[in-house]
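Appendix B, record 7
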Amino acid sequence: MHDLRFRPNRIAQTLYHHRSHTLGCVLPDIVSPFFAQLFLELEVGAFERGYTIILGNTVSTPALERTYLQTLAERQVDGLLYLGGMTNALKIGPEDQALLRDLAERLPIVTVNGDLQDVGIVTSVRSDEAGGMRAMLSHLCAQGHKEVAFLGGQPDVTSTAEKLQVYQELWPGHPPEWVQPTGLDIDAGVRAFCNLMGAARQPSAVACINDLVAAGVLMAARAQGLSVPDQLSVAGFDDVFPSRITAPALTTINHNYAELARLALDSLLLGIEGRPAPRTVMVPTLLVERNSVRPPGGR
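C-alpha coordinates (predicted):
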Protein backbone atom coordinates (compact mmCIF):
# COMPACT_ATOMS: atom_id res chain seq x y z
CA MET A 1 0.00 0.00 0.00
CA HIS A 2 2.85 2.34 0.82
CA ASP A 3 4.50 1.81 -2.60
CA LEU A 4 1.22 2.56 -4.37
CA ARG A 5 0.66 5.60 -2.11
CA PHE A 6 -2.64 4.11 -1.01
CA ARG A 7 -4.63 6.19 1.48
CA PRO A 8 -7.56 4.51 3.23
CA ASN A 9 -10.90 6.17 2.52
CA ARG A 10 -12.35 7.24 5.89
CA ILE A 11 -15.93 7.34 4.58
CA ALA A 12 -15.66 3.78 3.27
CA GLN A 13 -14.16 2.66 6.58
CA THR A 14 -16.99 4.35 8.46
CA LEU A 15 -19.63 2.57 6.39
CA TYR A 16 -17.90 -0.75 6.93
CA HIS A 17 -17.30 -0.45 10.66
CA HIS A 18 -20.39 1.70 11.42
CA ARG A 19 -18.18 4.16 13.30
CA SER A 20 -17.26 7.71 12.37
CA HIS A 21 -14.47 8.03 14.99
CA THR A 22 -15.83 11.49 15.74
CA LEU A 23 -17.27 12.72 19.01
CA GLY A 24 -19.59 15.66 19.53
CA CYS A 25 -18.95 18.17 22.29
CA VAL A 26 -21.56 20.74 23.30
CA LEU A 27 -20.56 23.50 25.71
CA PRO A 28 -21.88 26.99 26.51
CA ASP A 29 -18.87 29.28 26.03
CA ILE A 30 -15.51 28.32 24.52
CA VAL A 31 -14.18 31.78 25.49
CA SER A 32 -14.68 30.92 29.17
CA PRO A 33 -11.28 29.93 30.61
CA PHE A 34 -12.88 27.00 32.47
CA PHE A 35 -14.54 25.48 29.40
CA ALA A 36 -11.54 26.28 27.18
CA GLN A 37 -9.17 24.46 29.54
CA LEU A 38 -11.46 21.46 29.91
CA PHE A 39 -12.13 21.24 26.17
CA LEU A 40 -8.39 21.30 25.46
CA GLU A 41 -7.90 18.27 27.70
CA LEU A 42 -10.84 16.49 26.06
CA GLU A 43 -9.63 17.23 22.54
CA VAL A 44 -6.09 16.02 23.21
CA GLY A 45 -7.37 12.92 24.97
CA ALA A 46 -9.79 12.11 22.15
CA PHE A 47 -7.01 12.45 19.56
CA GLU A 48 -4.82 10.07 21.55
CA ARG A 49 -7.68 7.56 21.42
CA GLY A 50 -8.12 7.89 17.66
CA TYR A 51 -11.08 10.29 17.70
CA THR A 52 -11.67 13.84 16.54
CA ILE A 53 -14.15 16.20 18.19
CA ILE A 54 -16.80 18.36 16.54
CA LEU A 55 -17.48 21.34 18.81
CA GLY A 56 -20.87 22.95 19.30
CA ASN A 57 -20.36 26.28 21.09
CA THR A 58 -23.85 27.41 22.14
CA VAL A 59 -22.83 30.87 23.46
CA SER A 60 -25.20 30.13 26.37
CA THR A 61 -28.23 30.27 24.04
CA PRO A 62 -30.86 27.55 24.71
CA ALA A 63 -32.11 27.50 21.11
CA LEU A 64 -28.58 27.01 19.77
CA GLU A 65 -27.94 24.33 22.39
CA ARG A 66 -30.95 22.34 21.13
CA THR A 67 -29.84 22.84 17.52
CA TYR A 68 -26.33 21.55 18.17
CA LEU A 69 -27.64 18.52 20.04
CA GLN A 70 -29.87 17.56 17.12
CA THR A 71 -27.27 18.40 14.46
CA LEU A 72 -24.52 16.34 16.06
CA ALA A 73 -26.84 13.35 16.34
CA GLU A 74 -27.77 13.73 12.68
CA ARG A 75 -24.07 13.83 11.77
CA GLN A 76 -23.82 10.40 13.37
CA VAL A 77 -21.07 11.16 15.83
CA ASP A 78 -20.19 8.07 17.83
CA GLY A 79 -20.90 9.75 21.18
CA LEU A 80 -21.49 13.07 22.87
CA LEU A 81 -19.61 14.97 25.57
CA TYR A 82 -22.07 17.41 27.11
CA LEU A 83 -20.91 20.34 29.27
CA GLY A 84 -22.91 23.12 30.88
CA GLY A 85 -26.30 24.25 29.62
CA MET A 86 -29.10 21.89 30.59
CA THR A 87 -26.66 19.60 32.42
CA ASN A 88 -26.29 22.34 35.05
CA ALA A 89 -29.92 23.48 35.17
CA LEU A 90 -31.89 22.99 38.38
CA LYS A 91 -35.06 22.41 36.31
CA ILE A 92 -35.58 21.22 32.72
CA GLY A 93 -38.89 21.71 30.89
CA PRO A 94 -40.86 18.71 29.56
CA GLU A 95 -40.06 19.45 25.89
CA ASP A 96 -36.33 19.58 26.56
CA GLN A 97 -36.59 16.46 28.71
CA ALA A 98 -38.20 14.64 25.75
CA LEU A 99 -35.48 15.91 23.40
CA LEU A 100 -32.73 14.68 25.72
CA ARG A 101 -34.33 11.26 26.19
CA ASP A 102 -34.64 10.84 22.43
CA LEU A 103 -31.02 11.88 22.01
CA ALA A 104 -29.83 9.41 24.67
CA GLU A 105 -31.58 6.59 22.79
CA ARG A 106 -29.69 7.49 19.61
CA LEU A 107 -26.14 7.87 20.94
CA PRO A 108 -24.09 7.53 24.13
CA ILE A 109 -23.89 10.69 26.23
CA VAL A 110 -21.44 11.57 28.99
CA THR A 111 -22.02 14.76 30.94
CA VAL A 112 -18.95 16.54 32.30
CA ASN A 113 -19.39 18.56 35.50
CA GLY A 114 -23.13 18.25 35.18
CA ASP A 115 -25.87 15.64 35.10
CA LEU A 116 -29.15 14.76 33.41
CA GLN A 117 -31.44 12.84 35.73
CA ASP A 118 -33.94 10.37 34.25
CA VAL A 119 -32.52 10.76 30.73
CA GLY A 120 -30.48 7.59 30.22
CA ILE A 121 -26.99 9.00 29.83
CA VAL A 122 -23.97 6.72 30.12
CA THR A 123 -22.11 8.54 32.91
CA SER A 124 -21.97 11.81 34.77
CA VAL A 125 -18.29 12.61 35.36
CA ARG A 126 -17.88 15.48 37.80
CA SER A 127 -15.21 17.19 39.81
CA ASP A 128 -16.14 17.29 43.48
CA GLU A 129 -17.09 20.97 43.56
CA ALA A 130 -18.82 20.72 46.93
CA GLY A 131 -15.71 19.05 48.33
CA GLY A 132 -13.57 21.73 46.72
CA MET A 133 -15.59 24.53 48.30
CA ARG A 134 -15.43 22.76 51.65
CA ALA A 135 -11.63 22.48 51.30
CA MET A 136 -11.35 26.18 50.45
CA LEU A 137 -13.54 27.31 53.34
CA SER A 138 -11.65 24.98 55.70
CA HIS A 139 -8.40 26.55 54.47
CA LEU A 140 -9.76 30.02 55.23
CA CYS A 141 -10.79 28.85 58.70
CA ALA A 142 -7.35 27.36 59.28
CA GLN A 143 -5.88 30.75 58.40
CA GLY A 144 -7.95 32.29 61.17
CA HIS A 145 -10.87 33.70 59.17
CA LYS A 146 -14.11 33.47 61.14
CA GLU A 147 -16.10 35.87 58.96
CA VAL A 148 -16.25 34.90 55.29
CA ALA A 149 -18.58 36.09 52.51
CA PHE A 150 -19.69 34.17 49.40
CA LEU A 151 -19.50 36.16 46.15
CA GLY A 152 -20.82 35.44 42.65
CA GLY A 153 -22.87 32.63 41.16
CA GLN A 154 -26.23 32.02 39.51
CA PRO A 155 -29.05 30.66 41.70
CA ASP A 156 -30.48 28.49 38.89
CA VAL A 157 -27.17 26.65 38.26
CA THR A 158 -26.41 23.43 40.12
CA SER A 159 -22.74 24.23 40.83
CA THR A 160 -23.75 27.49 42.53
CA ALA A 161 -26.37 25.69 44.61
CA GLU A 162 -23.86 23.02 45.70
CA LYS A 163 -21.16 25.49 46.70
CA LEU A 164 -23.61 27.81 48.43
CA GLN A 165 -25.04 24.92 50.44
CA VAL A 166 -21.55 24.12 51.75
CA TYR A 167 -21.01 27.78 52.67
CA GLN A 168 -24.33 27.98 54.50
CA GLU A 169 -23.56 24.81 56.45
CA LEU A 170 -20.36 26.40 57.76
CA TRP A 171 -21.75 29.95 58.19
CA PRO A 172 -25.46 29.47 58.95
CA GLY A 173 -25.80 32.84 60.64
CA HIS A 174 -24.13 35.01 58.02
CA PRO A 175 -25.54 38.48 57.28
CA PRO A 176 -27.71 38.42 54.12
CA GLU A 177 -25.37 40.90 52.39
CA TRP A 178 -22.53 38.39 52.62
CA VAL A 179 -24.07 36.25 49.86
CA GLN A 180 -23.99 38.01 46.49
CA PRO A 181 -25.12 35.76 43.56
CA THR A 182 -24.32 38.43 40.97
CA GLY A 183 -23.13 36.19 38.12
CA LEU A 184 -20.07 34.35 36.87
CA ASP A 185 -17.83 36.91 35.14
CA ILE A 186 -15.42 39.69 36.10
CA ASP A 187 -18.15 42.34 36.16
CA ALA A 188 -20.13 40.12 38.53
CA GLY A 189 -17.15 40.20 40.89
CA VAL A 190 -17.03 43.99 40.78
CA ARG A 191 -20.77 44.23 41.51
CA ALA A 192 -20.56 41.67 44.32
CA PHE A 193 -17.69 43.54 45.99
CA CYS A 194 -19.47 46.91 45.74
CA ASN A 195 -22.65 45.39 47.23
CA LEU A 196 -20.63 43.80 50.02
CA MET A 197 -19.05 47.13 50.92
CA GLY A 198 -22.53 48.37 51.83
CA ALA A 199 -22.92 45.76 54.57
CA ALA A 200 -22.91 46.94 58.19
CA ARG A 201 -20.38 44.25 59.11
CA GLN A 202 -17.43 43.41 56.90
CA PRO A 203 -15.86 39.96 56.49
CA SER A 204 -12.13 39.32 56.66
CA ALA A 205 -12.25 37.01 53.61
CA VAL A 206 -14.39 36.23 50.57
CA ALA A 207 -14.85 32.89 48.81
CA CYS A 208 -15.71 33.46 45.15
CA ILE A 209 -17.73 31.17 42.89
CA ASN A 210 -14.88 31.16 40.34
CA ASP A 211 -11.62 32.85 39.43
CA LEU A 212 -13.21 35.41 37.11
CA VAL A 213 -15.43 36.70 39.90
CA ALA A 214 -12.37 36.74 42.18
CA ALA A 215 -10.48 38.79 39.56
CA GLY A 216 -13.33 41.30 39.55
CA VAL A 217 -13.17 41.49 43.34
CA LEU A 218 -9.43 42.20 43.15
CA MET A 219 -10.05 45.00 40.62
CA ALA A 220 -12.79 46.59 42.72
CA ALA A 221 -10.79 46.29 45.95
CA ARG A 222 -7.78 47.93 44.33
CA ALA A 223 -9.99 50.77 43.00
CA GLN A 224 -11.21 51.44 46.55
CA GLY A 225 -7.72 51.32 48.04
CA LEU A 226 -8.25 48.03 49.86
CA SER A 227 -5.14 45.87 50.07
CA VAL A 228 -5.40 42.14 49.26
CA PRO A 229 -4.55 40.07 51.24
CA ASP A 230 -3.51 42.49 54.00
CA GLN A 231 -7.03 43.86 54.56
CA LEU A 232 -9.11 41.24 52.78
CA SER A 233 -8.33 37.67 51.71
CA VAL A 234 -9.79 36.58 48.35
CA ALA A 235 -10.22 32.94 47.28
CA GLY A 236 -11.13 31.80 43.80
CA PHE A 237 -12.29 28.53 42.24
CA ASP A 238 -11.34 26.73 38.96
CA ASP A 239 -7.58 27.46 38.76
CA VAL A 240 -7.83 28.83 35.23
CA PHE A 241 -4.99 30.75 33.59
CA PRO A 242 -5.98 34.25 34.85
CA SER A 243 -5.65 33.05 38.45
CA ARG A 244 -1.87 32.90 37.99
CA ILE A 245 -1.47 36.41 36.62
CA THR A 246 -3.75 38.43 38.88
CA ALA A 247 -2.13 40.64 41.48
CA PRO A 248 -1.87 38.92 43.85
CA ALA A 249 -2.04 35.45 42.31
CA LEU A 250 -5.17 33.65 43.49
CA THR A 251 -5.47 30.87 45.99
CA THR A 252 -8.01 28.64 44.27
CA ILE A 253 -9.38 25.15 43.61
CA ASN A 254 -8.20 23.09 40.63
CA HIS A 255 -10.72 20.75 38.99
CA ASN A 256 -8.07 18.14 38.21
CA TYR A 257 -8.76 18.80 34.52
CA ALA A 258 -6.63 16.06 32.98
CA GLU A 259 -8.18 13.38 35.19
CA LEU A 260 -11.67 14.77 34.61
CA ALA A 261 -11.20 14.60 30.83
CA ARG A 262 -9.59 11.15 30.96
CA LEU A 263 -12.43 9.62 32.94
CA ALA A 264 -15.06 11.32 30.77
CA LEU A 265 -13.50 9.90 27.60
CA ASP A 266 -13.03 6.45 29.14
CA SER A 267 -16.71 6.38 30.12
CA LEU A 268 -17.87 7.55 26.70
CA LEU A 269 -15.79 4.92 24.92
CA LEU A 270 -17.31 2.24 27.16
CA GLY A 271 -20.73 3.50 26.11
CA ILE A 272 -19.77 3.50 22.42
CA GLU A 273 -18.55 -0.09 22.72
CA GLY A 274 -21.73 -1.15 24.49
CA ARG A 275 -19.90 -2.05 27.67
CA PRO A 276 -21.14 -1.18 31.19
CA ALA A 277 -19.93 2.08 32.70
CA PRO A 278 -20.48 3.59 36.15
CA ARG A 279 -23.45 5.98 36.27
CA THR A 280 -21.54 8.57 38.34
CA VAL A 281 -17.81 9.29 38.62
CA MET A 282 -16.55 11.89 41.10
CA VAL A 283 -13.08 13.39 40.62
CA PRO A 284 -11.28 14.93 43.64
CA THR A 285 -10.40 18.61 43.37
CA LEU A 286 -7.08 20.15 44.42
CA LEU A 287 -6.39 23.14 46.68
CA VAL A 288 -3.86 25.51 45.10
CA GLU A 289 -2.31 27.98 47.55
CA ARG A 290 -0.94 31.24 46.16
CA ASN A 291 -0.78 34.78 47.51
CA SER A 292 -4.34 36.11 47.89
CA VAL A 293 -5.05 34.54 51.29
CA ARG A 294 -3.33 35.18 54.61
CA PRO A 295 -4.40 35.33 58.27
CA PRO A 296 -6.59 38.34 59.17
CA GLY A 297 -4.60 41.33 60.31
CA GLY A 298 -1.55 40.12 58.35
CA ARG A 299 -0.39 37.84 61.14
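Remarks on this record: The longest helix spans residues 33-48. The first strand starts at residue 22 and ends at 27.
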